[in-house]
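Continuing the series of single-chain predictions for the mutant panel. This is the parent chain; the variants come on the following pages.
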Amino acid sequence: MSLLHATWLPAIRTPTSTGRPALLVWADKWRVATPDGPGITPAIHPFILNSEDLKSWLKAKDLLPDGIIDATACLTLPSRSLSVPVQPGDSPLEIQDDLEDKPLWTGFPLQAGEPIPKAHECWPWQVHGLAIEPGAATTWLSKLPLSGDHPDLADELRWWSHLQRWALSIIARGRWLPHVEFSKGEGYPHRARWVPLLNREDDRRRLEEFAARLPLVATCALPWREPTGRRSNRMTRLRPEAMREANPVASCRPRSGRLRVATLLGELVDAQLRKGFEPNLEGLDPLLETWQEALGSETGVISLEDEAVERLATASHHWREGIAGNVAPARACLELFIPEDGQEFWDLRFALQAEADPTLKLPASAAWRTGADFLQLGEVRVDQPGEVLLEGMGRALSVFSPIERGLENATPEGMQLTPAEAFVLVRTAANQLRDVGVGVELPKSLSGGLASRLGLAIKADLSESSRG
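Parent structure:
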């Protein structure tokens, strides 16, 4: 039995591309093997299917990708510890000499289809497979089934296929922007990219769902390093000899979380939009011409001076941030409270709310007390909560102008709304605020249009200008 896998490689370089990531397709199968472990380099995965057999297997299933490259990667995989058996008749000295030649840890990666136990170890393994650059990877992922019984496809492939469909949905709905990545590392090019907008409530909820279900194998690649010890995007990534020489044993827990999923989604969206983009350069400033040309190129590299690219990067960052904000573990939240009997004004309190679990909230005062440190929303860590709150309140102001009164002091915690303002918030602004990434908590009697059914109403007189 063979089981097909797909793991994202953070970056790859070939003679025709520049520092782009790739999807590594590989397979393991049941076979008899001797326990092994890392020496000065990670051990070779004992159950891996070699590249020729993998190509034949994929071709037979009509799943052989286009534009593939034989590749080697170092993946951190769930493993089982096993000792090397001692042969009968070995003398103590022979056993001692044998142990000195063996790695300190020996075992196997879990075999194809084997369930991952709760208590397991993760070790680095050399894995041989086929690398697919993002443009071809999006086409290949679209071929994968979304449902059904496919025992030869690993669980992460179904996850990848659903992520690809989400990327197509974002493109179809126009939820994307052009962006500029300004690289501060020496020798790393600046790039123009297409980025998804994840400000709408349904997309942010879907992001949390994908993050909760992210398989370990999908993101378990360790970065390659050159002999100098610097992180590399060069072709040594594809050569096993260079990898063995340059990469000592290193292991890490596979990365997960909403930021990781947002990055993977961005790579798929960027690759697909890049394929079909045709620049329209008529009447454009030369700076914008270069940006457009880079958005339609295979690599996205921008050939401009650093100062010019930094200007573009700053402008595109503010453009994106003003619309969608950042993908963070928490967001600003507005909580509306019904007035007490005999009172006219409505209390609107500011809070921090966890993206993963909206029931986890803390008042704004907790964020201001924390300062530049971090705070916990249950198990969710929020770094620099004050900045997260202020950034969200800025976006709230662009949608619901009365917020300006609540931001008159340095550490705002809430404000009061007139009945007319509360009416606008409940009827129209709440959904608009959610679409820019700001949480809104309304009284249960008022959310979802239930006010009239429950005998509750907001009494307000609107000005002539507000009536339209």
